[in-house]
Amino acid sequence: xxxxxRVAVCCSLxxxxxxxxxxxxxxxxxxxxxEVSNADHDKRCNVTLRADPTTGGLKLExxxxxxxxxFPPLKEATAxxxxxxxxxxxxxxxxxxxxxxxxxxxxxxxxxxxxxxLTFLQSAAAVGPPPQTAEQVSGDWNVVRSxxxxxxxxxxxxxxxxADEMPLKVQPGCDQLVMRxxxxxxxxxxxxxxxxxxxxxxxxxxxxxxxxxxxxEGPDPIMLVRP
Length: 227
Fold this sequence. Notes:
Layout: H1 2-30, E1 32-38, E2 44-54, E3 57-62, H2 64-70, E4 79-83, E5 87-91, E6 97-105, E7 108-111, E8 119-123, H3 124-127, H4 134-137, E9 139-145, E10 150-156, E11 166-170, H5 176-181, E12 183-189, E13 192-197, E14 202-208, E15 211-215, E16 222-225
């Protein structure tokens, strides 16, 4: 029995360095730029996961004062750790777990702990480029149908301080499709460009590499493209 016990202990000790090495390699693979965000993606915090050891885990870098406004638990964050193959924890003093992110797809993790809203952790590659701002979107746009021929030109007024909704101008000669909708204002909402009519009906557009595609896409797609 003692011989078997010694063999088991020796085998366990022999495997321990391999497990540590694998964990270290996995942590190095995750090291880099990440983003913490809420479900609507209108609150974001850029963080950097380092593979360097620190008290309580691995080094974590972020703008504490700015990020704690939207994500209060981050005020206490001191480190991060990898648990198993698919869980990233952000921890505070004495190992207190602040967020426990579980991988839901490659480069995207989510955390839903008691008393907290659903929170995401995404790699910079998964997040992609930042959404365009209202300042970048303002100006002239052609409304284009699937055939590719412009049917209208809209001018989106530049954002004004404190304004949530900006006026737009429908240029002369527009197709009846646009005239029936009758857009009078626009705004940005969670990365989407929203046109609103005087009746309160809306058209939503999502950015696809500089061309804004109406969503949801119907049988006759409508796009906004720069002249």
